[in-house]
Amino acid sequence: MKLCRAALGVLLLAPLGVRAVEPISLGLALAGVLTGYISYPRLYCLFAECCVQKPNLSRKELQKDLNSKLFGQHLAKKVILNAVSGFMSNAKPKKPLTLSLHGWTGTGKNFASKIIAENIYEGGLNSDYVHLFVATLHFPHASNVTLYKDQLQLWIRGNVSACARSIFIFDEMDKMHAGLIDAIKPFLDYYDHVDGVSYQKAIFIFLSNAGAERITDVALDFWRSGKQREEIKLKDMEHALSVSAFNNRNNLKCSPEAMKLMRTL
Ligand SMILES: Nc1ncnc2c1ncn2[C@@H]1O[C@H](COP(=O)(O)OP(=O)(O)OP(=O)(O)O)[C@@H](O)[C@H]1O
Ligand SMILES: [Mg+2]
């Protein structure tokens, strides 16, 4: 109120200035500025979160973050860096980016996905464009799988329509009920559009303990034979994972179709 009175006082005391800026012109000018603010994305994005604030994700920044924060995961670091920076620099990817991170509990799967999210959206996991699903929390009842399936597909569709560069993180994939992985599958393929929506710029990250024992075995074998941990190559793990995690139907319950897909991620 004090401010309004002061403004009124200034207006009354400055009749010349008031005449120069008459109300209609002032209104139009304000409307113009507001329209400009709303319609000029870069300006708007200075004040509010936008779909992909950093379209040119900095490979250097991501590398710096991974090196300084994520320890002992040379394979994951390399894959994440190349996959994420390559994908983000591609203006027209042919399919969404799908990453599947496997490992024993507490090895940094959620931590790594947080680093990825933060390098794409300033808000990281809190961003409106980053969606985290925890199988046991969001899809707890086997009897509701059909409902979850519909809700999940609607959620993914709605959010990718609103922001093509949406990120979906699925935690505890190994505890996901049968059918739900099949529900995600259509979004991960090489389709230009599915029902009028393109999913090619979206990012899907799957976190799982599946295969953790085999990963530990491989690391232990390397250690026993006196080799450095960094000597472990991705192909050593890929083989271990393909024979362990997704062949075990008790670990990951999904259709053969979805299992094939997960093996190729
Ligand atoms: N490789 C790592 N480098 C640095 N910090 C780590 C690493 N792994 C785990 N941490 C720390 O431990 C915390 C827990 O790890 P995180 O939640 O990412 O494990 P997880 O692999 O998702 O385990 P779970 O399978 O039990 O979900 C992280 O928030 C982080 O602080
Ligand atoms: Mg976790």
TrEMBL record:
InterPro entries: ClpA/B, P-loop_NTPase, Torsin
Signal among keywords: yes
Signal peptide start and end residues: 1-20
Signal found in the keyword field: yes
UniProt entry keywords in alphabetical sequence: Signal, Synapse
Protein's cellular compartments: Cell projection, Growth cone; Nucleus membrane; Synapse
UniProt-listed Pfam families: Torsin
Transmembrane segments: none
Bilayer topology term: Peripheral membrane protein
Main location as per UniProt: other
Assembly mode: Homohexamer. Interacts with TOR1B; the interaction may be specific of neural tissues. Interacts (ATP-bound) with TOR1AIP1 and TOR1AIP2; the interactions induce ATPase activity. Interacts with KLHL14; preferentially when ATP-free. Interacts with KLC1 (via TPR repeats); the interaction associates TOR1A with the kinesin oligomeric complex. Interacts with COPS4; the interaction associates TOR1A with the CSN complex. Interacts with SNAPIN; the interaction is direct and associates SNAPIN with the CSN complex. Interacts with STON2.
Family of this protein: Belongs to the ClpA/ClpB family. Torsin subfamily.
Identification of the protein by name: Torsin-1A
Organism: Equus przewalskii (Przewalski's horse)
